[in-house]
Structure formats: structure tokens, C-alpha cells
């Protein structure tokens, strides 16, 4: 199987094969090449994993309860995920636990073939836990030394019955743009350092991706989860429907803002209803990256009583202000594309009275609701070329009724809220692929960003 996959990848990357020329559009061929490149990169990335231990699971061996070697693939039957022996979560072998092996090539297939990521129900059906390779990638700026790899399990938190009258789109329509008819099953990933531990703090983590991407954004976020589980959080990461062709099944694609908003609303409700089952207690914390800032903003305004604190990384908060800035000053091509996807039209054709523009502009709403909303913390890089840092600066200025020095102030207190501006950092400032790209900036700036993230984590753990 792997040999055939490599042959297919080589053929696809080289563009060979008259079959593809005959049956695929240029856009589809490009997407296939991109997927092939991602598959090859994923396989090579196995060498980029950080060494991590994990909480021990146990099994009976010659009448004694001993540590089970779940890291050893030879302990599992070939091509099987389940171990050969029953596992337990405690050193007395009294508490059975379901565990499945995630092999690296299977992990890569999930992340490369987009219809699988967030939609594979094999873990959900048995309630099994696994060790997800993504949580060991050396992507976070925060050094991973001493962290334990968290366990992961999945559940379906929402099922949407899709009946699209446009399933039979014209042949000229790219395959990935034809919305399917069937079930869209949205997955919730749950991460814990110890699967059966009690007393965890629930944290809802909403991925970005411009509203239409998953793979890299999910991979990057999952690589940072050990930072959170190390501090006692149980991390809940939902997949939501995606806009446009999206990296998901046809049934879960071509969503709009309202559908994504409804999905994260359902995700928060699911965490609220199920956190006790995972041994968690206390208020739900929320972290959102990039364009997911809009979804988090809607939640904190509509459901402030269900959220303890919110940490925003380089967030999009107000489409009206961002649209005006891009039209007046230009730049931010990726941000423009995201806005046009959300607003469903080119920016120049969106009127100031647009209902969708109003619904996705939250600065004024946040200020009006500040007596009710939970404490907020914003982290943004001054060199961000995707989402203007002025989005976070304007929120702080309005919430604190103060003048924020947009260029030089590292920490700004905005009433009970906080805003960190990192002068030399870019978008994805919390990630760093050593020797390749580090959006946090030079060595001095990286240390500054690390200190900021550490301070943000301490703040997030406080009670409101």
C-alpha cells in the first residue's frame, strides 16, 4: 500500500498520466498535486517529532499488573488498531480503558485527504483513546521539553442532514465545489494528559483557517495542546463546517457564516453538557485563532454566562473596520480573501448597510456588552500581514476607554481586559519551524513572545 502511494505521489507531482489530463479540471489537478506534496511532507515530518513521554497504561503480564508498551507497534496485530491485550488506566489493573493505535501513515492520510480529517468515526464508535502524532510536532514556539503527550478521543457533537438541490452541478463545476447530500457529522476532539483524571479545567479551542481550511491549522493547534494539558486543561477542539470547497466532506462544505456560528454554538453546548463526563470542573475557557475570532466574539456576546475567559491570538474581530482599512490602504491579500469569503462578495461591492457585514462586526457590540462579557486577552503581532493588529488595538481602546499606543506598547490594560502587541512578530507568532520560518521574529522577539504566551496562560487560569 505504501509503495503504491509513493508511486501515485510521484506520478501526480510530475503531472504525468493522460488519465488525469482527460478527466480532471486544471483546478482539480492542482489540488491533487497539493495533496500529494502534503502527503510526502507529512511522511517526512515524522523526523520532526519531539520526544515525549505519556501517562502509563497497564496490562496483566504473568499475573502482575505492568506498564503496557503502547508505543511499540509490534504489540499490536498487523493492520489492527486495537492492542492484543486488555488495557487499564490504573496501576492495579482495576479500571479498563479502550485504546487504539494511530499509525503515522494513517495519521498522514487523515490530514492530507481532507474528507477524512474531522470526520473519521472509528475512535468515536468505541469511545477509545489514542496518542495523536500531531501533538508531538516541533511547531510551537514554546519549547516542549518536559511535556507529556496528551491522549485524544473523539465524539460526534452535531449531525446535520444535508439536502442540497444543487448536488448535480454542471460538469464544468469542480468536483470539490459540488455540495453533497447526506449527513455532515461534526467531530469533537478531546485531549487529556490522563484519560481518567478528575479535576480538569475545560477549554474550548477554535481553529482558524480563513473559514475554509483545516489541515495545517488543525495540525499547528494540536502541536500546542501539550502546553495546555500540562497545566491541567482538558482541551475540546471542534470541527465546524467550512466555506467554499473547504478541506472536508462535500456534506460539510460550502457553509456560510450563520452555519459556522451555529456549529460553534453547538460545540459550546456540548462541552457544557459533557465536561463532567470527562472529569472537568469550573468555568469553560475559550481560545480562538485568526478568523475564528469572529466566532468566539459571537459566543462571548450571546453566551457570556457560559464562558469564564477568552484568549485571542491575532484575531479578526470586526469585518467592517477591516474592510474599510483594506479598501483605503490596500494590502492584506489573505485577509481580503477571507473577508470576501465571509461576506460572500468582493469587498468593493459590499455596501455599508450589508446585513452580513453588520452581523460579523463585533467591536461596537463588545463595548456595549462589556458589563456582561468575561475578561478578554488579545495577542497580536505588529507585522501581521494577514489580519491588521489594529483589530486588537481598537478593541482594547474601546473597552478601556483609553488611547492605545498602537506601535510601541507591549502590554496594555483595557479595564479588566489585556492587549499584548508584539512589535516584531507576524501572523502565527506562536509557531516556529526552526531553520525554516519563525513568525515570532529574531531571538529577542521570540523570547518576548514566549514570555507573553506564558503570562497569557497564567491569566487564563485565573478565576473571573
From TrEMBL:
Coiled-coil regions listed: none
Protein name: BD-FAE-like domain-containing protein
Ranges where the BD-FAE-like domain occurs: 203-396
Source domain of life: Bacteria
Entries under InterPro entries matching the protein: AB_hydrolase_fold (IPR029058), BD-FAE-like_dom (IPR049492)
Amino acid at each position: 500500500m505504501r509503495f503504491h502511494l509513493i508511486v501515485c505521489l510521484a506520478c501526480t507531482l510530475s503531472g504525468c498520466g493522460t488519465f488525469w489530463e482527460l478527466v480532471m479540471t486544471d483546478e482539480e489537478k492542482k489540488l491533487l498535486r497539493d495533496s500529494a506534496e502534503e502527503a510526502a511532507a507529512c511522511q517526512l515530518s515524522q523526523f520532526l517529532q519531539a520526544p515525549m513521554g505519556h501517562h502509563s497504561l497497564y496490562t496483566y503480564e504473568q499475573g502482575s499488573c505492568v506498564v503496557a508498551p503502547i508505543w511499540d507497534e509490534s504489540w499490536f496485530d498487523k493492520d489492527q488498531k486495537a492492542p492484543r491485550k486488555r488495557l487499564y488506566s490504573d496501576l492495579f489493573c482495576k479500571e479498563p480503558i479502550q485504546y487504539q493505535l494511530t499509525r503515522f501513515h494513517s495519521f498522514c492520510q487523515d490530514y492530507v485527504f481532507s474528507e477524512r480529517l474531522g470526520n473519521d468515526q472509528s475512535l468515536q464508535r468505541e469511545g477509545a483513546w489514542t496518542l495523536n502524532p500531531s501533538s508531538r510536532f516541533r511547531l510551537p514556539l514554546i519549547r516542549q521539553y518536559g511535556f507529556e503527550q496528551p491522549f485524544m478521543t473523539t465524539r460526534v457533537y452535531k449531525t446535520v442532514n444535508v439536502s442540497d438541490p444543487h448536488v448535480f452541478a454542471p460538469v464544468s463545476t469542480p468536483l470539490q465545489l459540488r455540495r453533497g447530500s447526506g449527513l455532515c457529522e461534526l467531530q469533537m476532539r478531546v485531549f487529556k494528559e490522563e484519560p481518567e483524571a478528575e479535576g480538569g479545567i475545560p477549554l474550548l479551542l477554535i481553529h482558524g483557517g480563513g473559514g475554509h481550511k483545516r489541515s495545517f491549522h488543525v495540525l499547528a493547534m494540536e502541536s500546542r495542546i501539550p502546553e495546555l494539558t500540562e497545566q491541567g486543561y482538558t482541551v475540546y477542539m471542534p470541527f465546524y463546517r467550512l466555506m467554499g470547497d473547504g478541506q472536508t466532506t462535500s456534506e460539510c462544505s460550502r457553509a456560510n457564516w450563520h452555519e459556522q456560528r451555529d456549529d460553534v454554538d453547538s460545540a459550546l453546548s456540548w462541552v457544557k453538557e459533557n465536561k463532567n463526563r470527562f472529569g472537568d470542573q469550573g468555568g469553560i475557557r475559550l481560545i480562538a485563532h485568526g478568523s475564528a475570532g469572529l466566532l468566539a466574539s459571537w459566543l462571548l456576546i450571546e453566551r457570556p454566562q457560559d464562558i469564564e475567559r477568552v484568549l485571542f491570538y491575532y484575531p479578526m474581530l470586526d469585518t467592517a473596520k477591516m474592510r474599510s482599512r483594506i479598501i483605503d490602504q490596500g494590502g492584506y491579500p489573505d485577509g481580503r480573501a477571507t473577508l470576501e469569503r465571509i461576506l460572500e462578495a468582493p469587498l468593493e461591492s459590499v455596501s455599508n448597510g450589508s446585513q452580513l457585514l453588520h452581523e460579523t462586526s463585533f467591536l461596537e457590540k463588545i463595548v456595549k456588552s462589556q458589563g456582561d462579557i468575561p475578561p478578554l486577552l488579545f495577542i497580536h503581532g505588529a507585522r501581521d500581514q494577514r489580519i491588521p493588529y489594529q483589530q486588537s488595538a481598537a478593541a482594547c481602546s474601546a473597552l478601556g476607554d483609553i488611547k492605545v499606543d498602537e506601535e510601541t506598547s507591549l502590554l496594555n490594560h483595557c479595564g479588566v481586559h489585556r492587549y499584548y502587541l508584539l512589535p516584531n512578530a507576524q501572523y502565527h507568532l506562536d509557531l516556529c519551524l526552526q531553520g525554516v520560518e519563525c513568525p515570532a521574529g529574531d531571538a529577542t522577539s521570540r523570547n518576548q513572545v514566549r514570555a507573553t504566551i506564558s503570562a497569557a496562560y497564567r491569566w487564563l487560569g485565573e478565576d473571573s
